[in-house]
Each structure stands twice: as structure tokens, then as C-alpha cells.
Amino acid sequence: MNSDEELGAILSAIHVRAGIRRGVDIIAAGTSPRHSTVLLDGVACSYERLPDGARQIHSFQYPGAICDLHRHLLPETSLEVAVGAVTKCTIGVIHQEDLEQLIANYPSFGLALWRDAMLEASTCRKALVRATRQPALRRVAHIVCEQLARQEAAGIDTPTISPSQMDVADAAGLSAVHVNRTFKELLRLGLLSKQGRAVKVVNKRKLASIAHFNGTYLNMPGLLRHWQLEIAGASALHERSGATSRPLNPTTCLCTRSEVQRSIGL
Amino acid sequence: MNSDEELGAILSAIHVRAGIRRGVDIIAAGTSPRHSTVLLDGVACSYERLPDGARQIHSFQYPGAICDLHRHLLPETSLEVAVGAVTKCTIGVIHQEDLEQLIANYPSFGLALWRDAMLEASTCRKALVRATRQPALRRVAHIVCEQLARQEAAGIDTPTISPSQMDVADAAGLSAVHVNRTFKELLRLGLLSKQGRAVKVVNKRKLASIAHFNGTYLNMPGLLRHWQLEIAGASALHERSGATSRPLNPTTCLCTRSEVQRSIGL
DNA sequence: CGCATCATTGAAGCCCTTCAAGACTTGTGG
DNA sequence: CCACAAGTCTTGAAGGGCTTCAATGATGCG
Description:
Two copies of one chain form a homodimer. By secondary structure, chain A is of the alpha+beta class. Chain A is built from nine helices and nine strands. In chain A, helix 4 packs across helix 5 and helix 5 packs across helix 6. The longest helix of chain A has 27 residues. The first copy, chain A, starts with a helix and ends with a helix. Chains A and B meet through helix 3 of A and helix 3 of B. Chain B binds a DNA duplex through helix 6.
């Protein structure tokens, strides 16, 4: 979809900013900066803070993502949404005028942004279904699966996931205590193991099975082949999803992490 | 945003189809028709059917909405999403080629569709937060408030809402039994009353208060003035949301119900 | 007017939450 | 390099909100 020339134009519009420590906001709630922010390295999350102090994580973001895409076109509807660093992050900025120029010059870039918005809605719908209708074990397993799949899509190949148990709890809409007990159960089942504080996936296939993880909603053609998913109808749906020739990162319209990082000399 | 000429072009591309009875699918899961569907009259809902038969409603749709906008650009990610008639509905279709032609001819129409996708994501995020973090009373009250506000936005001015208790249950992610008990509580508090089977809002302001209904996320500038919302910061946010001169229907990019219906002689 | 659908009500039970306290990691500063 | 501090993980006990099951009553469409 993106031509090399287009990709080059996009990358050259990105200005690298300093690193951000875990827990710090990349984009604060209630602000409307005159630029867009690109995640270059690390993992971030878009979240909302409730009056009682609870944090609801909407989704996690991986390198290549435009963190504040949700503000585009309708900034006033999502002022309460913030973006925080789940791990140490490196970010870049694109000036608003440059972004608009890029969209004007490369219609396919605008389409990619639009598609990205659709993808975010798709992911959010799935999260809604899980949150309301599935037990904790499946919810947590599904979140782990999604993180693993999205890491792969971003070109990161490790069996450990970045979010802490508290992060997972805030994303699943469960208490940290209960997420801990759920992890313990997944450890007991031999699907996960622990390396220090980090959670490591031992049996990806079984985990996906009990999570009912399908992954089609993430629009990552080709990348889910490894998963050998056992969901009924998954393979049938799979064959039909070859529309985009360049694999798109979920919530990412730019490219893979390596492409981004090469361009900024990481 | 939409000029009269543009609106005329859009409306003339719509072909009216026969009415649809309550409970019947407007768009079935797993299908990819070569046209888009516009809701002309009645109330619909986009939903997903789970393996165990449960139904999760993502959102309700009002006249003027493009029912299958979620299929646009990324049809394969939302094949499981269906759209059903909550009340008796009248629909129209726009051929795929006509829709693409309209987007090509009127860039502002494409932008409106894009904005609509962002709005759907915004609504879904809010639904996710409510579903995971709020008690049943607030969830149900919030759904009622949202329906009332969206009816108003579509030009329908009645204090009763269309969805049945079961519909509300499937949208809130609660059991029908518990929604019934929640409604009973709202009746006892004097916020709702009943007309036969229908639920009628008696005290809109108090209902919005206990629901923590803000409404900014719906992007309906001007239309929320009547609500006299009591949420902290709501008025401040309000003043900044005058960007679009023409009030947009939530999940609607066309116009108000009366405009649609006038054009088809309803 | 008949029948399918929806609303209502009670009882029993489970999943998850909250509270509280102690063990462990991590990385920061001395 | 070590020690401390801050945050995270872990574990137990008690309780509440919601679910499920089941049966009856009301509504409204054809």
C-alpha cells in the first residue's frame, strides 16, 4: 500500500523526542497539542482515568503507532483519553501542518489513517464483548495473546509480554488481585511461566485456544499463520483477508518497528 | 459541512427497500454485500452473536445512519458483526460504486464518513469503560440517556425509548433479570415511568446525573444544552466543541431524519 | 382473539471485589 | 556496590453484586 517514496516522506516528517519513563504520560488528558505523536520504541497504552481514580486501558500501542490518532478530526470527543508509557518509550512528533500535507499529497496515507480508525473501533468492539461476556481466565488469556500477536506484527519476537499484572488488570477491567490469581491458574495449566516479574508464554496454541483468540479482527494477514488457531471458521475467514498487500500493524499505519527505527538511527 | 448540492447527490443515490420487522437482521453476519445500507426510519442495533448464543449489542443506530459503515475499508475484520432491527425499520441501499463515486466527488463526504468511524470508536470506548467499571444502575441509566440524546439528534422528540428491556440488557452486558430489577429501582426513584411495555423518562436531568452522562463523546454541539448537565467540567468542554457547523448525528453522516424522509416521500 | 414474546418475581449460588498484610523485584541514590 | 525505597506481586478471608434457574403474569402483534 505505502510506496517507498511515501514512506520516506512520512519518516522524514518525524522529529525524535527524548525518551519517556514507564508510568509517565505521553499524551495527557485534556490537552490539544499542535502536533501528532508517533511511538518509535517501547509499549504505550491509551487509557481513561475515572473519578474514583481507577484506570481503564482501552488498548496497547506498539512501535509505529500514532498515539493520538483518536484525536484526529474529532479532538473534542476524546479529550479525556490519555496515553501513558507501559515501558520506557521513545517518541517522535509530526507537526499538524506536516501531517495534513502528507494526507493531501498521499491519498493512500489518509486511507491508512482512516483504516486505522476502523481497526481501533474493531478492537474496541472485541474488548467490549470480552469484558461483558467472558470469565476472567479467558479475558486475561486473550489479552496476553493479543499482545503477543501485536508484538510479532511490530517485528518484536519474544515470548514475554510488556504489560505488568496491574496493566493487564486495568485493561481487562478486573482487580489486580484477581488477575494475579488468574495468572497463577494459567501457570498451573502450564500455558505461562515467569521470568522474574515478567510473564512468558509457554504454549501459545493452547493459550489461544482457551482464550478463543481468533485475531482476524486485528487485520494481520499472514502473521497469524504460526498460531495454528483452532477456532471454528477461522481458517475460512482467513483466506478472505488478503486484501492489503503490505501487512499493517494494528493501530499502526506507518510500518514495522525496524523500518521506523532504521530511519532514526536506533 | 455538507452543502445542499452534496446532500442532494447523496440522497439521490439511495434506493428505498421494503420495511423490516423487529428482530429481523438488516445485515447478517458473514455476508459482504456489494452495497451499503442506510437506515431511513426506525431503530437498529449492531451486534455480535457469541458461540453460547448470547448477543452483545455494540451500539444502537438511528435514522440517517449507514448501518454497515464498520465494513468499509476493512470488511474482513468485522464479518461477525450483524445489524438487527430493534423496531420496524425502513432501509435504503447505495451501490458500492455510487458510494465510492460520492466520496471521490465530495471530499467532505469522505471526511464525514471518516469522522463517523472515529465517533463509533469514541462511543465504543465509553461503553467499554461503563461495562467494566460501573454498577448496573449507572450502566442502564446511561444507556437510556444516550438513546434519548440520539433520538433528539435524529429529530425524534419523545420521552420514551425504543429498545426493550432485553435489548438494554444485551447492550449493557447484563442479564435481562437484573436489568428488570434495575429498571424497577429507577421507577422507584421517580426517574422513569412505564407506558405499557415502553420505558418513559420522567426526570431527564436527574437520570443524567446518576448516570454520569456527559454526552460530549457523542459530538452533538448545541443539542445537549437542554440537558443542564451537572458533570464537573462538562460546560468547559462544551464551549470548545463548536467545530462542525452542521450538527452531526452520532453514527450518522447524512443528516436528520426529516431530511432523509422528506427526500423519499415518507 | 390466540399465541409468541417480553416482563416480573423469588431463591440459591458463584465469581469477583475489597481489605489487609507480608514477600519479593527493581532501580535509584548514597 | 550495596542498601534502601518504591512499587509490584502474593496470599487469605469476608462480602456483595450479579447470574442462573424456574415459573407466572402481562403485552401486543398477526
